[in-house]
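I'd like us to work through together how a protein chain folds, taking it slowly. We need material for that, and I hope you will provide a protein of your own picking. Go ahead whenever you are ready, and we will take it from there:
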Amino acid sequence: MVQEKTADVKTMTEFTAKKQKILQAALGFAADGRWPDASLDALAAAAGLTAAEAAEIFSCREEIVSAVLQGIDDRMAAEDFGFDPARDGVKDRLFEIIMLRLDLLNENREAMRVLLRDLTASPAAALQHKSAFCHTMRLIFEKADIDFSAVWQEEAAVPALAAAYMATLASWRQDDSADMAKTMAALDRNLSRMMRFLAVFPFRDSGGKSIWSNL
């Protein structure tokens, strides 16, 4: 039994290592302009793997892009923001979380610009990523300690946050400044618009106050 568990751990470790090699190869291809014509075989070769090994992990390029973004989600989920709802307003919490996500995207800025553009280049690619994107928006709310008491509340809030995030992402793509001042200003505006929109819905805290009233 111990030997079986050890073998399973080794297999999983090898799988993870191969996966990371492919993801790094994809980031490299995207950063230097080779992504549009990159095949899975070419990515496997760049990662030092056979085509068969790569095919066991990813079946298409969209899965690779999704895995890159899932890695961003995982790092965001692991972050301890130390928020105090009594001290930190809703907007401030959302702002800090989204800026962290953009900072993580900035670590491979040129590559992420290309991969994100590729992901939204066609309706089919965007549709494939829709579920994962909605999960990211829910994760942002979760990290901000915003709980929804009814399904309809989440269904209203998630698209509103998605719109604010995508509008900010458009600014991020054009913002080459070191301090991301334009991006931060855009995020501030977009969150304010989102909260004004959501304030018309009956989202209430335990004291009966709208949770979106904190602008």
User: Anything to note?
Assistant: The chain has two domains: 1-59, 61-215. Residues 1-59 form one domain. The mean pLDDT is 89. The CA atoms of residues 93 and 139 lie 13 Å apart.
